[in-house]
Amino acid sequence: MIKNFFFMVLSQVINILLIFNCNANTFNQAEKNANTQFIKSRAILPNHTSHGPSVINSAYIENTAQIFGHFTAEDAFFNKLIVYGFLNISNSQIKDASIYGSAKISNSNFINKLTVFGTMIAKHSTFKNISTNAKKIFIEDSKIENLEVIANEDPSIPQILYLDKKVNIGSIEFKSGKGIIISSSRDINIDQIKIIGAVVKENYL
């Protein structure tokens, strides 16, 4: 039984890596497309809207950025970010964000609320409030005040939260009441996290 659980966890992790390697490759191909929109100066813009692949590097968006398509951002600030597509963001600060697609986040700070309607991976980042309907959430070496997992359309599919390395979370709530939390690090003190609607499985390899 333990052996079967180990292989189930391993297969789930491999699936996550394959999903995001695929998304990253798709994005990189889009980034090379001649139609990709680039902002690479230290621009200060009141608003920004783009359709199709888009890249922002070292820019400050005072109000709202709306992106329709694959989007990557680095060393940027957004007051309000809305993405309809895959997001790959690093070394940035965001006040509020809504992502209608998968999100890959690293070394970033979400000041108020982040909403993600898709798979999510976050590393080395800080968050105040996260709301997501993701089937799979991977958090590594990050800090979150509150994490809310909304029930997805198919209640028969489990929603799984993977925690690795040093993760500090105030509260986690699975609205479905059927969540699974898999902790892969002894540095995570599960007993200090307020957990509602989920079972915890420790998987120390």
Q: How would you sum up this structure, described in words?
A:
The chain is mostly beta strands. The protein has one domain (2-202). It is built from one helix and 20 strands. The protein has one helix at 2-31; strands at 37-39, 43-45, 48-51, 54-57, 59-68, 71-74, 77-84, 87-90, 93-99, 103-106, 109-116, 120-123, 126-132, 136-140, 143-149, 160-164, 168-174, 179-183, 194-196, 198-202. The strands form two sheets. The chain has a ten-stranded parallel sheet, with helices on one face. Strands 2, 3, 5, 7, 9, 11, 13, 15, 17 and 19 form a ten-stranded parallel sheet that branches. The longest helix is centred in the first third of the chain and has 30 residues, at 2-31. It starts with a helix and ends with a strand. Mean pLDDT is 85; it is low at 1-11 and 13-32.
Instruction: Identify the overall geometry.
Output: elongated
Describe the main β-sheet briefly: 10 strands, parallel
Given the structure, what is the number of helices?
Answer: 1
Low-pLDDT stretches:
1-11, 13-32
Succession of helices and strands: HEEEEEEEEEEEEEEEEEEEE
Radius of gyration: 17 Å
User: What class, by secondary structure content?
Assistant: mainly beta
Averaging pLDDT over every residue, what do you get? Answer: 85
* End-to-end distance: 16 Å
Number of strands: 20
Strand content: over 45%
Query: Widest sheet: strand order?
Result: 1-4-6-8-10-12-14-16-18-20
Whole-number tally of structural domains: 1
Helix coverage percent? 10-25%
